[in-house]
Design goal:
The protein is an alpha+beta fold. The protein has one domain: GAF domain (Beta-Lactamase). 28% of the residues lie in helices and 25% in strands. It has four helices and eight strands, in the order H-H-E-E-E-H-E-E-E-H-E-E. Strands 1, 2, 3, 4, 5, 6, 7 and 8 form an eight-stranded mixed sheet that branches. Strand 2 and strand 3 form a beta hairpin. Helix 1 runs antiparallel to helix 2 and helix 1 runs parallel beside helix 4.
């Protein structure tokens, strides 16, 4: 079966997000393994959103984030919790939107052309699994609308109707328990 995302790039960005979500319901299935689904998700996001120069997952293993499936230039292979935008998002367990990466203290420059970034933590059953990281070569590329739709993509992926929340974890991911209940939030870095 041929998998394909078909979204008109001339549509408004919010409409492209809506179409992407509807197509992800068919593309991402519980029959496929984690790496296959994460790989297709990154490809679908990169293909749909022209502003995205890099998109990928960093998956938690013990106390570090390790590079998972991605689309874009080669990337840093591991990030300590609390370091850079990804590590900070993982540590705080909140989405971080960075309009200008040059103004984020401790930003890790895997791609020197990156100008803005959004990182969404992946949390399931109060355990951190990793982060979804997106970069752009333009300043101020990401906003609350992006956060909303990346969060909805995450919900679809981790909690689809045909799959119970407890059945997703696989041995490659070793989640750490949360100290407190997770509240969806967004932080704009200055």
């Amino acid at each position: 079966m041929a998998e394909e995302i078909s979204i008109d790039k001339h549509l408004a960005e919010e409409e492209r997000y809506r179409l992407l979500l509807s197509q992800l319901k068919v593309l991402l299935t519980k029959e496929d393994n984690l790496i296959s689904n994460l790989s297709n998700l990154t490809a679908a996001i990169k293909d749909t959103l022209e502003k995205v120069s890099w998109v990928g997952f960093y998956l938690l293993d013990r106390q570090k984030l390790y590079l998972g499936p991605f689309q874009g230039k080669v990337a840093c292979t591991n990030i300590e919790i609390g370091k850079g935008v990804c590590g900070t998002s993982a540590s705080k367990r909140e989405t971080i939107i960075v309009p200008d990466v040059n103004n984020f203290p401790g930003h890790i420059f895997c791609d020197s052309s990156s100008k803005s970034e959004i990182v969404v933590p992946l949390i399931k059953n109060n355990s951190l699994l990793g982060v979804l990281d997106l970069d752009s070569h333009e300043y101020n590329s990401f906003c609350k609308m992006d956060k909303k739709y990346f969060y909805l993509s995450y919900l679809h992926f981790f909690f689809p109707q045909h799959q119970s929340p407890g059945n997703f974890l696989i041995p490659i991911l070793k989640p750490i328990p949360a100290a407190v209940a997770i509240q969806p939030s967004v932080v704009f870095a200055k």
